[in-house]
Structure prediction request, 99 residues.
Amino acid sequence: MRRPPYGLVVRARTFLSECYVPKLDEAAASALSSRLQATIADLTADGLALRWLRGLALLDEETYVWMVSAPDADHVVLVNRRAGIAYDHVVEVVAAESV
Prediction:
């Protein structure tokens, strides 16, 4: 996956990725965020149009979710794989204000 040809506009969409993390705590969530952000930086340097938005830890649910701006879900799957994160699912999201 490379950067689109000059002049081609790629519409960024927002995706949420979720994964179950046994014994999730703040330190583990911070480590996941750092790993994902580093992976996004590497892939962006390789030409992919990605932008980290936010990571959230639902500690009592042992669930980590993160949001990214990307052209399509395949890019998000690639980030998870490159970061070594077994994700449960990836879904597109929209802001409630824009619905």
Notes: The chain has one domain: 13-98.
